[in-house]
Amino acid sequence: MSVVITVAPTGPVASKADNPHLPTQPDEIAAAVAQAYRAGAAVAHIHVRDARDRPTADLAIARRTMQLITEQCPILIQLSTGVGLDVPFEQRAALVELRPRMATLNPCSMSFGTGEFRNPPHEVRRLAARMQELGVKPELEIYDTGHLEACLRLRDAGLLGDGPLQFSIVLGVAGGMAATAANLVTMVSRLPEDAIWQVIAIGRTNLQLTAIGLALGGNARAGLEDTLHLRKGELSPGNLPLVRRAVQLVRDLDLPVASVDQTVALLKLPAR
């Protein structure tokens, strides 16, 4: 099966002070995504920032970013409804009204670093139902073991649409699962048989756990949201080197890299 490469160019946490190559404004994000597409990425996981580089759910900024990306390449856009810890849930949820091909769905509230990531159960159900109405494919982000059961309850309630469930197994966030191979193997073993999944390893274990995930049959995500470094002590000069590294991992395992059209078919994305 072909491997889907997702680029995550920005994220909600890092700043240009952490890595000056972090794209934060719409034109910067679009340029980084277009480069990643040409290198082999089929999906772009998008966070947007305001004019002061703070995480935002501003619909005008998100719409402009999506337009700029679409003008430069046909990559599939996945908007993050996580946005940032200080952004109210209702503002985050409103992003799906822009009808990206995909959006994240976070099933549970949790501690997140020194803050709280709030995802009230009744609001999560409402968002899942609205995504289904709009034909927006949910990417289910699971940060801990119980998050999987929460997703399966949404599935059993008929709130996750048709086609295979799509998961991101997030490891390394303080408040969630530690970034270990054992945790990854455990979570993969518990996924539904037909699930599509990728590992998101935050920080220094990013490369190793991405490789393990590929060997276990998962997809791959790369970008400055997940790690600011290309190797220990060396900041990555942009998203492109990280995407190229992920693509090389896939090819070193003698696996094909999925095109946009193949990704649409694999995920059974609703028609547009």
UniProtKB/TrEMBL annotation:
Query: Does the keyword Metal-binding belong to this entry?
Result: yes
Superkingdom in the source lineage:
Bacteria
Q: Which cofactor does it need?
A: Zn(2+)
State if Zinc is listed as a keyword: yes
Q: What InterPro entries does this protein's entry cite? A: Aldolase_TIM, BKACE
Secretion signal span: none
Q: Which UniProt keywords apply?
A: Metal-binding, Transferase, Zinc
Q: Name one Pfam family in it.
A: BKACE
Record PANTHER family: 3-KETO-5-AMINOHEXANOATE CLEAVAGE ENZYME, 3-KETO-5-AMINOHEXANOATE CLEAVAGE ENZYME-RELATED
Q: What is this protein called?
A: 3-keto-5-aminohexanoate cleavage protein
